[in-house]
Amino acid sequence: MPLRVNPHGFFFSSAPTSSHLLLFSPFIPRFLPSLMRAMPRFARFLLFGQRLALQQPRCASRGHSVESISRETIRQVLAHNELKPWLKSQWCIPPKRNAEFVCQMEEVLTVYTRPYDERRPQVCLDETSKQLVSETRVPLPMQPGQQECCDYEYERQGTCNLFVASEPLAGKRYLHVTEQRTKADFARFIRDLVDVYYPAAEQIVLVMDNLNTHTPAALYEVFEPAEARRLIEKLELHYTPKHGSWLNMAEIEFSVLSRQCLDRRIGSRTELEQEVAAWQTKRNGQAVGINWRFTTADARIKLKHLYPSIAD
């Protein structure tokens, strides 16, 4: 079916009808945002047609028909659109004018300004999941002039949970792999944090997000009351605000881990533990820290829209 181009737009078939014709007028940009929400595919089609009509004035003025359009032509036209409805980005969108959010945010930022103290180490805790995927065929090894070749087929092997405790000022991090994400796993990791990783610390300044398992009450569900209280008194807890997990520096550690270690297929928990342990040893040996520069003063300027308005 030919694609007919004219000064107003384009339509399918050489004999246009009211059902085929798509007019492109100066009024379209006014309705495009609502159209994009209601009918995204149709709106994308309008953008493409309007761009195509503008880029081919000679063809449009003469009303020529085009039998076909290559995929590369479509790609180039869509690539130049200012609006790209097929692209999305996920982000933590904080609430506006929210006193609770800014209060917790400034509390965490104040903690980050404290100097290094080995008796009171500042530790950021977080956890994430990792899907285990195994190969169905042996990959072809890398050779000069040729990358390693992996088959597109794979086999799912379930998931594992990863804990990380990062001490940015000392350049240390400790990771632990578990089968799943539960309060019991969190409580046991906290005990390791207190008794294994920082046994000489008077108190651990712990920053973590508001995950439903990250509560002191989880310790009472796993340990005896005396043990749970002992562990809690070794912690100074600070929580990032809801929809503000970007304030947790442990997420930076996970980002580096994902790019340097987990960006390939890992088929078993044993293999994951070995890879993570090797990465942790190398990273700790280099004493790679995190230089956090965002301060409360910066937040009050750049994130002013998050602060509540004070009436006179």
Could you explain the architecture of this structure?
By secondary structure, this protein is of the alpha+beta class. It has two domains: 3-79, no CATH class; 99-136 and 155-306, 2-Layer Sandwich (Nucleotidyltransferase, domain 5). Helix content is 39%, strand content 18%. It is built from eleven helices and nine strands. The protein has helices at residues 28-38, 40-55, 57-62, 71-79, 99-112, 183-197, 217-222, 225-233, 250-260, 269-286, 296-302; strands at 3-6, 9-12, 22-23, 65-66, 122-135, 154-167, 172-178, 204-208, 235-239. The strands form two sheets. A five-stranded mixed sheet has the order 7-6-5-8-9, sandwiched between helices. The protein has a four-stranded antiparallel sheet with strand order 3-2-1-4. The radius of gyration is 28 Å and the shape is globular. The protein starts with a strand and ends in a 10-residue tail after the last helix.
Average pLDDT, rounded to a whole number, is 82
| Total strand segments | 9
Q: How many domains would you count in the coordinates?
A: 2
What is the fold named in CATH at topology level of the largest domain? Nucleotidyltransferase, domain 5
Describe the largest sheet. 5 strands, mixed
Strand order of the largest sheet: 7-6-5-8-9
CATH class of the largest domain: Alpha Beta
Contiguous low-pLDDT stretches (5 residues minimum) are 1-27, 57-63
What is the architecture of the largest domain at the second tier of CATH?
Answer: 2-Layer Sandwich
**What is the distance, rounded to the nearest whole angstrom, between the alpha carbons of the first and last residues?**
67 Å
Strand content: 15-25%
Radius of gyration: 28 Å
Per the principal axes of the C-alpha atoms, what is the gross shape? globular
Count of helical regions? 11
CATH homologous superfamily of the largest domain, by name?
Ribonuclease H-like superfamily/Ribonuclease H
